[in-house]
Amino acid sequence: MKIAIETPLEGFRNDIADVVRLFYGEGAAVTAQEAHDATLTHAHALEDGVWTERFAFSSQTNAQETTLRSEAATDSGLEEKRRLKRLIKRCCYQLMKEITGRRPAWGSLTGIRPTRLYYQQMERGSTRAQARAALETLFDLSSEKLELLDEIIDAQAGLVDRPANACDLYVGIPFCTTRCAYCSFSSGEIGDGRLVEPYLHALFHEIDLCAEMARDLRLDIRVGYIGGGTPSSLSTAQLDRLLTHLRSRFGGLQEWTVEAGRPDTLDREKLAMMKSHPVTRISINPQTMNDETLVRIGRMHTAQQTIDCYHLARELGFEDINMDVIAALPGEDYAMFAHTMDVIRDLNPDSLTVHTLAIKRASRLHEQRYEQQEEDAARMVALGRETAHAMGMRAYYLYRQKYMAQNLENVGYARPQRICRYNIDNMEETVSVLALGAGGISKCVMRQEEKILRAPNIANIEQYIARVDEMAARKRAVFAEKAKQLAREGE
Ligand code: SF4
């Protein structure tokens, strides 16, 4: 179904389109100039301090409308826009719900960080129960998703509030052995490896410049994460040099995660080398334990390789191992996902991240016009949750993305003592991140102004190598701004 949206408030067109997509899927929201099967007309009025939103739907077989009113915001600017946006989306959502008779699990929520909304309610003085009730009323969240949010807020207790100069370190290695069919990252296939040494040379230079900056500006760096791409696609010697260099410039970190994503990039020698460094957590990602799916999604390893690699890592003394899986992968039904969960339950990792497949525009699946398999996705995600609980884990972070099957979510589960601080900091955006390497986005959290300054590194590997000094200078400018703010607060 194609629905033409007509609104007098152009600035809210995308928000209305987001709600339409919740019910009718990608590509459903169009403009009146495009071919369409139905029209959704929005009317907005402000009278005596009251906003009135009206949505009318008309197709050949159906005509319905809904109206919502609310006191207009007395303040202007951002808060006013936020409140009006919510009212418009809620009104549109109500009508779509009446027409389709469906209730999405996340209600009218289309944002990527639902926990932020929970925290916002509490920052305004609400109790947990009041915050929960407000989310239910404002967004029509299902009790199942409210329960999930509750579990995460509990797990994050005491971990979100960090010193103002706290900062995490992210290092990106943008190489993979092959490209997964669902990948939308800018990572390149490692190919003949000709870019690796020049890349590491530039990265070491950026590490030096940023270590100096962190010292000058007194950033308190305790948590590090090496991601990508697949960092373990570097040779043992290259990864050893990287870890040695990082250790010499950023010593004493309490938490160091290395994404060792693909089991075909790992062997005894590489794992033992990683263990000789203060790497506290690794991630070995099966995605699925079904070999035919692994071939279909372009991952050149088998389920058995993942299992062997996991046992090897345990044998070498890794005490904190995460595994990532994806629900609703191409060709997988519920039974296949259940098989993956059975194998993982036997392995018993320390944390489990359950993703829902998202078909992003830059992925091969999108190019191939792959149609999302929606039916079993919610059941698979629920089974992932059940499996994590059975292993003694609890949800501790969550994010949503566009183009996910059934608009579901990605959830990180962990045993209480195995929670990864970086994942919480990154998702909740309460701690600054100094991101090094191609495509890394540094975030500088300015608490007073309630804003985040961003300094993105260029994603193209060759451009990054050529312009690394510019990237480091960009970061210094942003973090210097924050240092000034902290100095003012301390005066
Ligand atoms: S391992 Fe990750 S970064 Fe690499 S191709 Fe697959 S999805 Fe992309």
Describe the structure.
The chain starts with a strand and ends with a helix. The protein has helices at 13-24, 78-100, 114-123, 128-139, 143-156, 196-216, 236-249, 268-275, 291-296, 303-315, 334-347, 364-367, 377-390, 421-428, 461-466, 468-490, and strands spanning 3-6, 29-30, 38-47, 50-59, 63-71, 166-173, 175-176, 188-189, 220-228, 255-259, 281-283, 321-327, 351-356, 394-399, 410-414, 432-436, 441-446, 451-456. The protein is an alpha/beta fold and 491 residues long. The model has no long low-confidence stretch (mean pLDDT 92). α6 (196-216) packs parallel to α7 and α7 (236-249) runs parallel beside α8. It has three domains: 1-101, Double Stranded RNA Binding Domain (2-Layer Sandwich); 103-156; 166-475, pyruvate-formate lyase- activating enzyme (Alpha-Beta Horseshoe). The strands form four sheets. It has a nine-stranded mixed sheet, with helices on both faces. Residues 176, 179-180, 183, 185, 187, 228-230, 261 line the site of iron/sulfur cluster (SF4).
